């Protein structure tokens, strides 16, 4: 039977196993290795080898076999680990990932790369033969997990009784055909949804389990040694299996596979979740988005109905709105993934880069359980990687430099994530040298950027995101070319977010990334400016009010602030930002919406408030182009298009407008009068 339909499942599982292997290797103490960690690393390699052999991936099978042999000796105390050996295991993990990518693309892995990594592993085996920690007979054998315990069943040249449960007809045929490739089928018995086979094979039980797990779950498999007298070619009833004499069969060795409560719990846990293609989830989210738009249209049309005559209809419409909201929240939660998916990649990055730079760095993480939309979480990996490498190269000092400054020799890098309103805030912080203001300004002037010595720190730090900007004195293979920080900022802006930097020279730098939790649906407040409708994300809105004249104060000819409970807030007129004709220009006749973006609060002048509802976010750049001050668009209940305001960009746009107006006013004053 063709097994190609299961290759994708193998690739997905192998990637997860490699990630688990890398994490365990990074946590492993070479001086005092934990037996459970070694067993888990061994099982990961063993499972990959079994699947690779099933699908005929020769290079992957050979490489994992060599790695598995070394790991098996290490977990039995026959091989003394070292940091360099763990580095080689990590290099092997990278090579295995490259091989997986090649096979997934239906190509063969690079033979030179395969030969190199296999030679590295063989050399490790040869070197360890001369420095063996203890004779194999005297080596302490750590307790292995249930999967490894089954390997104790003597299968070399013998027969195994394999019992499968909860099978469908197609799974029975597929498993029987596949087991036939692993040895000689002596008998095959079907009883209801159970299948019992006696297989004469030289394969270890773990190899059989690894192959079968790409078709069924491990909890459905029970393997025991077959007594010599019972290995008859004729079909044997399932109930006859226990008739083998206890003394003649080492059956108890296989019992841990089926009897531990942990195995049953693992089976129950696996059966409670399924793998679904992300395209199906995206299609479901799109359909829910269309449902929200349709519901919004019905609500809009219902405003024209008599509430007394149409009471039942309007009540049903209210139920529909609540159900649509609950459905939307449930569907959106499917796409949410924990930030640990991202953070777990960085221990390896920090280990490799800090070793190359001769620095000692400790990674701390906070908020790994914080969830973010899958589409965003995959796109944030590259920007975060660049920021981390930048902190390691430019931020954190060498141990000698840190000691001279009175710091600990080991630097700290903190990755954190937390929810803030309708956004997620991700921070990359280090306790290194911080940013040098004068150096940045000097470099900016050298590149012809419009800067002054009186610029606030926040604007100076933003200069490092200019294309080609770098204050590094020499270019390395890690950073210093001035390529990347501008891409980081652009990528984050494309995700609807923004970047903030705070720094104290000599004490460290914190880069703060603010992103929306999802790009699909948001709760918004619709406002009217002139004849145009705009959407304000509700997570930014604090309150709305109609000001009185005595609360307004002018600071320039066209700049105002509003006093709200003793606090003076900048006033931004949306009609001026978007050049809307026919809008209300008198703040006392309009509505002020107080919003907060990060640590900044300000007021937005609008004509009126239209309502609050869910809107489906449509990417504007995909269908048109980037518009300053606009993050996306949506379709309203009446079928018209409304723009979603980029609240974070409002202060910057206001400052740019004020600066342009000042330049024009100065030019008008200095222009010579014609005779």
UniProtKB/TrEMBL annotation:
Catalytic activity: ATP + protein L-histidine = ADP + protein N-phospho-L-histidine
Enzyme class, first EC level, given as a word: transferase
CheW-like domain residues: 521-656
Record key words, sorted: ATP-binding, Chemotaxis, Cytoplasm, Kinase, Nucleotide-binding, Phosphoprotein, Transferase, Two-component regulatory system
Localization annotation: Cytoplasm
Name of the protein in question: Chemotaxis protein CheA
E.C. number(s) listed in UniProt: 2.7.13.3
Organism the protein comes from: Variovorax paradoxus B4
BP GO annotations: chemotaxis
């Amino acid at each position: 039977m063709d097994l190609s339909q299961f290759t994708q499942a193998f690739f997905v599982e192998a990637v997860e196993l490699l990630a688990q292997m890398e994490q365990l290797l990074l946590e492993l103490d070479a001086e005092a290795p934990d037996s459970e960690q070694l067993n888990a690393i061994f099982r990961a390699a063993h499972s990959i080898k079994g699947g690779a052999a099933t699908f005929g991936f020769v290079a992957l099978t050979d490489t994992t076999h060599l790695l598995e042999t070394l790991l098996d000796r290490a977990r039995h105390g026959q091989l003394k680990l070292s940091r360099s050996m763990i580095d080689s295991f990590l290099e092997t993990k990278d090579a295995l990932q490259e091989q997986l990518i090649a096979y997934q693309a239906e190509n063969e892995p690079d033979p030179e790369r395969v030969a190199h990594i296999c030679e590295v592993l063989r050399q490790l085996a040869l070197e360890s033969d001369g420095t063996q920690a203890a004779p194999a007979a005297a080596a302490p054998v750590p307790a292995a997990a249930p999967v490894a315990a089954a390997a104790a069943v003597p299968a070399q040249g013998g027969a195994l009784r394999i019992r499968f449960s909860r099978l469908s007809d197609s799974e029975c045929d597929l498993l029987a055909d596949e087991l036939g490739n692993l040895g000689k089928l002596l008998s095959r018995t079907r009883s209801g949804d159970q299948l019992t086979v006696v297989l004469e094979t030289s394969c270890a039980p773990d190899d059989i389990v690894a192959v079968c797990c790409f078709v069924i779950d491990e909890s459905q498999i029970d393997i025991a040694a077959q007594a010599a007298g019972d290995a008859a070619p004729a079909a044997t009833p399932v109930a006859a299996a226990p008739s083998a004499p206890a003394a003649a069969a080492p059956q108890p060795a296989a019992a841990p596979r089926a009897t531990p409560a942990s195995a049953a719990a693992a089976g129950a846990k696996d059966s409670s979740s399924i793998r679904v293609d992300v395209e199906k989830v995206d299609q479901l989210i799109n359909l829910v988005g269309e449902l929200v738009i349709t519901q919004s249209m019905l609500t809009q049309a219902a405003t024209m109905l008599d509430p007394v005559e149409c009471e039942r209809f309007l009540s049903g419409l209210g139920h529909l709105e609540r159900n649509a909201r609950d459905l939307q929240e449930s569907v959106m939660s499917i796409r949410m993934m924990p930030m640990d998916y991202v953070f777990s990649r960085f221990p390896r990055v920090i280990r490799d880069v800090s070793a190359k730079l001769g620095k000692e760095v400790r990674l701390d993480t906070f908020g790994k359980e914080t969830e973010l939309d899958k589409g965003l979480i995959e796109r944030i990996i590259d920007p975060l990687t660049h920021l981390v490498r930048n902190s390691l190269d430019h931020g954190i000092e060498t141990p000698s430099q840190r000691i001279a400054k009175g710091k600990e020799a080991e630097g700290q890098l903190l990755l954190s994530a937390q929810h803030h309103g309708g956004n997620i805030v991700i921070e990359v912080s280090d306790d290194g040298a911080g940013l040098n203001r004068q150096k940045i300004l000097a470099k900016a002037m050298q590149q012809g950027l419009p800067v002054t010595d009186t610029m606030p720190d926040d604007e100076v730090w933003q200069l490092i995101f200019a294309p080609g900007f770098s204050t590094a004195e020499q270019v390395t293979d890690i950073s210093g070319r001035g390529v990347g920080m501008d891409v980081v900022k652009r990528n984050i802006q494309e995700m609807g977010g923004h970047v903030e930097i705070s720094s104290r020279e000599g004490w460290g730098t914190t880069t703060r990334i603010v992103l929306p939790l999802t790009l699909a649906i948001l709760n918004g407040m619709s406002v009217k400016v002139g004849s145009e409708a705009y959407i304000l994300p509700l997570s930014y809105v604090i309150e709305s009010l109609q000001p009185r004249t005595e609360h307004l104060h002018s600071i320039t000819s066209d700049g105002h602030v509003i006093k709200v409970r003793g606090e003076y807030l900048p006033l931004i007129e949306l009609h001026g930002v978007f050049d809307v004709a026919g809008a209300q220009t008198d703040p006392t006749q309009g509505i002020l919406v107080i919003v907060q973006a990060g640590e900044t609060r300000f007021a937005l002048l609008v004509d009126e408030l239209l309502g609050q509802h869910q809107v489906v976010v449509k990417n504007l750049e995909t269908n048109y182009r980037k518009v300053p001050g606009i993050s996306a668009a949506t379709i309203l209940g009446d079928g018209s298009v409304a723009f979603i305001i980029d609240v974070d960009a409002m202060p910057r746009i206001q400052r740019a407008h004020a600066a342009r107006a000042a330049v024009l006013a100065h030019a008008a004053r200095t222009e010579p009068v014609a005779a």
